[in-house]
Amino acid sequence: MPMVIIKNILALLLFFISVSVQGNKEIKVVHIIGKAFVENDVSPNKARKEALNNAKIEALKKAGIGESVRAQSLLFTSETNGDFKDFFSSSSQIEIKGAVKEYAITSERMFCKDSLLVIYEVIINATVIKYNKKADPAFTSNIQGIKQVYASNSNLQFTLKSTQNCYLTIFNITDTEAYMLYPNTYENEIKLEGLKEYNFPTGKLDYTLSNETEQPETNRLIFVFTKKSIPFIKMNNEQVTSVEDVFSWIYSISPDQRVSDYHSYFITK
Questions:
Q1: H/E element holding 110?
Q2: Degrees, nearest 5: CA angle 259-255-82
Q3: 136 domain residue, yes or no
Q4: Residue 53: CB atoms within 10 Å
Q5: 180 and 160 both lie in a single domain
Q6: Angle between the 67-81 and 44-62 helix axes, to the nearest 10 degrees?
Q7: Each residue of 30-56: pLDDT tens digit?
Q8: CB burial readout 204-235, b (16+ within 10 A) else e
Q9: What is the CA radius of gyration of the chain?
């Protein structure tokens, strides 16, 4: 089962429009440029993704959010390389003070700077969230029962609890895709009671793991506990989504309203 124009001279300037949204500020920045080199084993598609990620990081810098640059730079690099190990091992220690909520690409191009150097350039307008509140230290979670290695066709099971009444969304990220594990067609969202232990799966189904390749498949589970029900909707009928949409959704939630827990495991054939 496991299975994101300004038509005149103002376009050259960065401007800020701040509004209060759920206690946070939304800062709109425009004409943010990101670039990446097309060279060696870097294909145009990969350079485009790197250029877009660099534009997002520049948007955070222009919005005056320092710590988030480190966190999201690590996330964007991981997303490009397909390796989230470093991000998951350090993200919980990084105080994230803001995030790119959404963006729109206004232009993109690939051009030659000289006879040897090819550059991919992306220009975006973005909305950056700057948090006014910090994480709630009394809102924590505890997850038990996730093994480091599973054989293909075995089942994933775990128990969890939180310190406060809340709602839960679980994502799974592999080397090739991201999808929402819970809630799902067979398991509706429920309100979790604080300090009460829950067994997953909660419904009459199994989280069956599979791997048809010779190499172990790396999986990362993201547990997102929220004080209010905040449905995640950016996915298809099979609940497949993107890493970008997952983290955009997470970071759109104020830190005092959520707590996240990360667990990695491998599936062998």
A1: strand 98-112
A2: 65
A3: no
A4: 22
A5: yes
A6: 170
A7: 999 999 999 888 899 889 988 998 998
A8: eeebebebeeeeebbbbbbbbbbbeeeebeeb
A9: 20
Q: Is 30 exposed, middle or buried (0-12, 13-18, 19+ CB in 10 A)?
A: buried
With beta carbons less than 8 A apart as the criterion, state whether 222 and 262 touch: yes
pTM reported for the whole predicted model: 0.78
Per-residue pLDDT of 103-137, as tens digits, reads: 999 999 999 988 788 999 999 999 998 888 888 99
- Pair (22, 113) in one structural domain: yes
| Total count of domains within the chain | 2
Q: Are 202 and 258 in contact (CB under 8 A)?
A: no
Q: Which domain holds residue 157?
A: 141-268
Q: Which residues pair with 167 in a beta bridge?
A: 226
Could you count the other beta carbons within 10 Å of the beta carbon of residue 58? 19
Residue closest to 255 by CA, chosen among 96, 127, 91, 90:
96
Report how far apart, in Å, the C-alpha atoms of 236 and of each of 1, 239, 241 are.
15, 5, 7
Residue 149 shares a structural domain with residue 263: yes
What single-letter amino acid sits at 191? K
Q: Is 131 helix (H, G, I), strand (E, B) or coil?
A: coil
What are the residues whose beta carbons fall under 8 Å from the beta carbon of 42, sequence distance 6 or more? 36, 50
Q: Residue 8: what residue type? A: N
Q: Which two tokens stand for residue 68?
A: 């988030």
Q: Is residue 207 part of a domain?
A: yes
How far is it, in rounded angstroms, from Cα 195 to Cα 209?
Answer: 29
